[in-house]
Amino acid sequence: MRVLTVVGARPQFIKAAPISRILRGAHTEILVHTGQHYDEAMSATIFHEIEMPAPDVNLAVGSGSHGAMTAEMLRGLEPVIEEHRPDGVLVYGDTNSTLAAALVAAKASHPDGSRPWLAHVEAGLRSFNRRMPEERNRIVADHLADLCLAPTDAAMGNLGHEGLGDRAELVGDVMADAYRWAASRSAEHLPEVAGGLARYVLLTLHRAENVDDHSTFARLAAELRIGLPVIFPVHPRTRALLASGTVTLPDNVVTTDPVGYLEMVALETSAFAIATDSGGVQKEAYLAGVPCITLRTETEWVETVSAGWNRVTGLEPGGLAAALADVTFMNRDRPRPQLFGDGRAAERIVASLERLDARVRAS
Questions:
Q1: Same domain for 211 and 286?
Q2: Tens-place pLDDT, residues 248-281
Q3: Are 104 and 192 found together in one domain?
Q4: What CATH code is carried by the domain that includes residue 203?
């Protein structure tokens, strides 16, 4: 089986690593990096850190508007598929890289008339907010995919409601695989900024709706004026806004450059609480057993909210401080169901791909 894997953002590199380790044991993988994340701290060094082979192809697309970025990826991916003639294309998550790869795979045709199958890891997630580019990307990828690899029962339910149940499989969440691997290695990677702090809140902010609008970001910055240190690894997108000087962070917020994956896991594990607008960090907070405050109006990971470990603050002023003051919410001595599987999703995903490939060959 010859699989072309397309990734473009750091969370996708992390999700792809456990699958790649198993896939390459018995099959051929061509790893394509679109270059959507091109910042050195967000991209290049992480392949070494997570013990993943360097990409075979780097399209170096870089930044731009959604349309321009996706168009460049489409132009770059088509000749890659023509050159390597994969049996299938594997995509992850909900980025522009996911959308572009799904579109190219759906339209591709090999000289013998066959076409590559398309499989989508992390299928079925829904925020039900169509204003989010990520929501549109994931919906398109699911509806084009030959195989929707769902991480949770809720995701399977969403796929069933959209008429995709016959091509969906519940495999568990590969992030649980990745997090288990990283947690066993992260103890010695706690950044110096957290050293000696008995309690701190770990913050990440990067979504366009939060950091591209100055008034929204200013409101979130005001929320951070709490009685605890806040450690804030600044995403490149957010860094540009801070550099403009139009928004000032409270004195209790300590900014850092983006951190490596093992450093991030160490920060998450040691945090008193995590505040974020990232889908992946919400999930990692749950896996770490740390209360999470989601600085958005909705979440794809509704299971973590139902389990009582994640609170979505919406636009309510003081939502962060209220969550931190809620003794019941902050209590870690409570049930934490195994929502995301047993850490063996990668094995099930590769087995699912093998079955899909066999069905396609037999048809």
A1: yes
A2: 899 999 999 989 999 999 999 999 999 999 989 9
A3: no
A4: 3.40.50.2000
Closest CA to 20 of 178, 243, 255, 184: 178
What are the backbone dihedrals phi and psi of residue 271, each rounded to the nearest 5 degrees, phi first?
Answer: -75, 150
Which stretch of DSSP H or E encloses residue 228? Answer: none
**Please, are residues 265 and 183 in contact by the beta-carbon 8 Å criterion?**
yes
Both 223 and 104 in a single domain? Answer: no
Tens of pLDDT, residue by residue over 291-342, are: 999 999 999 899 999 999 999 998 778 999 999 999 999 999 999 999 999 9
Number of domains composing the chain: 2
Cβ-in-10-Å burial (0-12, 13-18, 19+) of 129 comes to: middle
Give burial (CB, 10 Å; 0-12/13-18/19+) of 235: buried
Would you please indicate which residues are annotated as catalytic (active-site) residues? Answer: 206
Domain enclosing residue 234, as ranges: 187-330
**Closest listed residue to residue 203, CA positions, set 267, 248, 297, 132:** 267
